Amino acid sequence: MADLSGLKERVREIRNEILSSSGALESSRAAYEKRKEFLDSKKGKIGQLMKEMREVPAEQRAEYGQMVNELKQWAAQRFEEIDRSMKEKELAIRCRAEAIDVTEPAVKALPGRLHPVTQVREELIDVFASMGFEVYEGREIETEYYNFTALNTPQDHPARDMQDTFYLSPEFLLRTQTSAGQIHVMETKRPPIKILSPGRVFRSDDDATHSPMFHQMEGLVVDRHITLGDLKGMLDTFVKKMYGEDAVTRLRPSYFPFTEPSVEVDVSCFACGGKGCALCKGTGWIEVLGAGIVNRRVLENCGIDPEEYSGLAFGIGLERIAMLKYGIGNIKLLFESDLQVLNQIGDQE
Ligand code: PHE
Asked: 139 and 178 in contact (C-beta within 8 Å)?
């Protein structure tokens, strides 16, 4: 038979154990585990005490039973209080952590925007589309026939030296000019032709104003009675839309194998209005593109009768337009993808 005083001592110990350990609890989860340690119906320490009942002499069982029951009730209540205060504490912590400070300045959203060269390209397409041009996308890998020969630049023609070419093989190369697309268009389409062909071109050339890869926008119009006057009219419209109504164009004689006559097109300096400044190097004019009347040999190469049709063509360097427009001194800035730089150039919304 168990000694009741020993069991009473055990009851007291368990009570003390609950008192001393419950103060250190730090979470409702820990409180739950602790509760189980004492009150679990099977393994709990208080349940174990109940099992001792068998060992207690019959006349003392009532007293013992009451004592354990009281302990059980007390412990249940105590753990309930602990659970409640833990949950309150945890809720307060969560509320604090998840609180939204409505007075805090909003995080600025940084929407992406179009690259300056893309902006210029879209702007040019808009301008020429309004004059009835259609966009034709050429190919970046060309044969030397399309890039040179068909454009009236046969092998050994000195004009081939005007552009340092990346050859992929004796026949294939990275196109040095979007003019190659003129031939594809004229081979497949009959006049009237009015296309605009933007794209990347490649030349072995690398300094502050030249990059081995850059973008051009080719224009080609073939129809009956196309003259230099049409070219000037179209370019005037383009220049006024791009640089303002006061801008004027000037054609200077030049040379390209695939146009005759050929011209270099200048626009009156949009920084100084033509008085002369650093941008136009004191001349009042800025060169913006090369153009001309399509050489009759090029028409012939494409099976178009030069007696019946004539054409005009122009080639615009997009980086050059972007650099002039946004005041960029080094072409590399356009290709380094440095957001600090790109965010400063281009049209601000
Ligand atoms: N393809 C010439 C260049 O890259 C530009 C040009 C295009 C000139 C069309 C005349 C006509 O320099």
From this structure: no
Q: Whose CA is nearest to atom 5 of ligand 1?
A: 315
Q: Region 327-349: what's the mean pLDDT?
A: 78
CA trace torsion 31, 35, 38, 41 (10° rounding): -160
Q: Which residues line ligand 1 (CB under 6 A)?
A: 177, 179, 256, 259, 290-292, 313-315
Q: Which of 164, 179, 320 to mutate for ligand 1's pocket (most ligand atoms within 8 Å of CB)?
A: 179
In ligand 1, the atom with minimum distance to the C-alpha of 317 is 4
Range 31-46 average pLDDT: 89
Query: Would you tell me how many other CB atoms lie within 10 Å of the CB of residue 204?
Result: 13
The domains found in the chain, sorted by start residue, are: 4-97 (no CATH), 116-342 (3.30.930.10)
Give residue-wise pLDDT tens across range 89-104.
999 999 999 998 889 8
307 CA distance to ligand 1 middle (Å) = 23
Three-class SS state of 348:
coil
Query: How much is the pTM?
Result: 0.69
Spatial distance between the Cα atoms of 79 and 95, rounded to a whole number of angstroms: 24
Give CA torsion, residues 63, 68, 73, 78, to 10 deg: 130
Atom 6 of ligand 1: nearest residue by CA position: 315
